[in-house]
Amino acid sequence: MSFHPKMAYGATFHKSSRQLEDEGPAFVYTPENRARFDEIVTRYPPDRKRSAVLPALYLAQYQQSSARSTSSWEMWTDRGN
């Protein structure tokens, strides 16, 4: 005996209708952030370099958000002119 209703798995209501944007160009650290990343990796023992994944992701997020906020700021400041 099951209390779960019979469901038609594979019906349209189980599929996402969301359209993803194009991926765009591959991410590449700026030279400054690449140097920061290389310095961060040196803090970890050779057999634990994979532990730097969170700082690497943070640095990538910082780079992406600063690029967006700079262009957004430029758009905002240019609006008054």
Task: Give a brief description.
The chain is an all-alpha fold. 47% of the residues lie in helices and 0% in strands. The chain contains two helices and no strands.
Characterise the protein shown here:
The chain has 81 residues and is mostly helical. It has two helices and no strands. Helix 1 runs antiparallel to helix 2. The longest helix is centred in the C-terminal third of the chain and has 27 residues, at 53-79.
Write the layout of secondary structure elements.
Layout: H1 31-41, H2 53-79
**Number of helical elements:** 2
Report helical residue fraction.
40-55%
Helix/strand structural class: mainly alpha
Distance between the termini: 71 Å
Can you tell me the overall shape? elongated
Mean pLDDT: 78
* Poorly predicted sequence stretches spanning 5 or more consecutive residues: none
**Tally of extended strands?**
0
> Which percent band covers the strand fraction?
under 5%
- Give a quick account of the main beta sheet: strands, pairing sense, barrel closure: none
Rg? 22 Å
How would you spell out the order of helices and strands? HH
